[in-house]
Specification:
The chain has two domains: 34 residues, no CATH class; 37 residues, no CATH class. The chain has five helices and no strands. It is elongated and about 55 Å long. Helix 1 packs across helix 2. It is mainly α and 98 residues long.
């Protein structure tokens, strides 16, 4: 997956990046990315901070405050939910009871 991020960052296709970047350079890019993430990674976190602040400013007294991590995308295998679970979640969101 890092090949895709790097290629997008450099403005080239994955195929081109793989043909032009040797393993030593690739290792250096990985190390650099750990220290200085690409803008997209930081943008997601900054937006999550803003979302968390907005929700916390408007939350009901006595409710648990949110954290930026609550608003970061979670990738991976989706969890299975029954139709009833989905309906309950949607009703809670629409009624402000989340």
């Amino acid at each position: 997956m890092f090949w895709h991020q790097l290629a997008a960052h450099l403005g080239m296709s994955v195929k081109r990046a793989q043909s032009e970047i040797d393993s030593a350079q690739f290792s250096h890019w990985i190390a650099y990315h750990r220290i200085e993430p690409f803008t997209v990674d930081r943008s997601e976190y900054m937006l999550a901070v803003v979302c968390s602040i907005l929700v916390n400013v408007h939350r009901k007294k006595g409710t648990t405050p949110t954290k930026p991590a609550d608003f970061l995308p979670k990738f991976g295998k989706p969890r299975k939910q029954s139709a009833k679970d989905i309906e309950t979640t949607l009703r809670a969101l629409l009624n402000g009871n989340n």
